[in-house]
Fold:
Amino acid sequence: MRSRYPRLNRRQFVAGLGAGVAVCSVIPRHVLGGESGPAANDKLNIAGIGVGGQGWGDIQAAGGGENVVALCDVDTRRSASAQQKFTAARQFRDFRKMFDEMEKQIDAVVIATPDHTHAVACMAAMTRGKHVYCEKPLAHSVYEIRQLMRAARDNKVITQMGNQGHSAETIRMFCEWIADGAIGRVTEVHASCDAFASVYSQIRNLPKVGEKHDVPAELDWDLWLGPAQFRAYNPMYAPWNWRGWMPFGTGAIGDWICHVVDPAFWALDLGAPETVLAEVDDYDPKLHADVYPPGTQVTYGFAAKGQRGPVKLVWYDGSRRPPRPKDLEEGRNPPGTGAIVIGTEGTITHGSHGAGGVRIVPEAQMRAYQQPEKTIPRVPGHHQDWLQAIRQGRQAGSNFDYGGPLAELGLLGAIAIRYPGVKLQWDGPAMRFTNHDEANQHVNPPYREGWTL
Ligand SMILES: NC(=O)c1ccc[n+]([C@@H]2O[C@H](COP(=O)([O-])OP(=O)(O)OC[C@H]3O[C@@H](n4cnc5c(N)ncnc54)[C@H](O)[C@@H]3O)[C@@H](O)[C@H]2O)c1
Structure:
């Protein structure tokens, strides 16, 4: 079934790929659906999958000015606010049923389920020609990401990953400064997250795994698990805390790299790393098959590319902290969640979500810096960029061909922390580690019976 808003043709689609900057190629009205087709400013019919938590914000931001026609959530307690606001929307628990019954009515879908069900929900939407906004990280495995990138191209749909900082003014400033040579040639990026350390490391809750709990009547636990291997319900997993459990979440690194490393990823066109090496606090191979450790440091090596030289990216979370930048004045703190970007002629620090608070340090160098022309197109916000892109027939800024490889960085780190001290060699195009067969098992972990991508 075709969406009322058509998919792009191959030329239009390819034009919008690969670049963090969305390419604007407005589709004339006759292409949008014939002379009698919908005008470009018609409202879109939006469905939300996972509408509690972050999804509640997403469905309001994306659906507020559109028609929200369907809401799907496995837990009616979590979907109550959305149900009260969008009273005309039909309610579902299973997105497969929603698509079967409403395929003709839905144009676009906003997905904000836990990480382990992103891929199955995205795929169900895209193979039916629906445009997709999916929360970060794009998926739970590298294989899933590659499949989603392929499906987005094949189905020519407009996609956006939910790293909302990508639409900020500050990330554009950062990219323009780097291109301008504000700190010379960038050699190192130190990126960190100091948030929610007790959520990401769930070691203390491991003894509770065997406990017996009744599944609340409002929750469909089997659907919540989706393609993950079966385990008994326990309120310690959901909501929110699933992020610290390996079968469901991607740890601090998977959760935050899409926000914190997005600026460097865009400005330096990092792409896939060649090497990934983890250092882990309190590593225990038995514990860390199920929960993330209390502190991780992951070093990625990127080969020289285009105009830039090789880049070292180091990620720190939990008990691991980045070194204090030498250019930072006494009395100023480095960002707790953010990045330190080191070049041959200076240092930049910034916070999370699109390089918030970006500064050249020290402040005297910032003040002396003559800012370059604004060359990167500005967008009206992340959800609006996606909605506009659908209407204009262009790709959104963090489309899956941009967001997918960014999210992959976090997932590669989450694999490397299972093999601390081993420098894993990654062959990006072949999607495999060339020096570690066991690590390759985590690139595409098996789905539970009854689920496929
Ligand atoms: N962009 C951001 O700043 C940001 C912030 C927070 C969370 N997130 C992302 O949003 C996603 C959700 O995180 P959260 O903190 O809201 O989690 P959460 O557990 O609080 O909420 C998840 C919601 O999805 C529902 N759900 C679970 N499985 C479902 C399924 N199979 N089908 C339909 N509904 C389902 C739950 O009932 C709940 O309403 C994650 O991927 C997370 O990384 C992004």
Summary: The chain is about 30% helix and 15% strand. The pocket of nicotinamide-adenine-dinucleotide is lined by residues 49-55, 72-75, 78, 95, 112-115, 117, 135-136, 162, 164, 223-224, 226, 238-240, 255 (CB under 6 Å). The first strand starts at residue 45 and ends at 49.
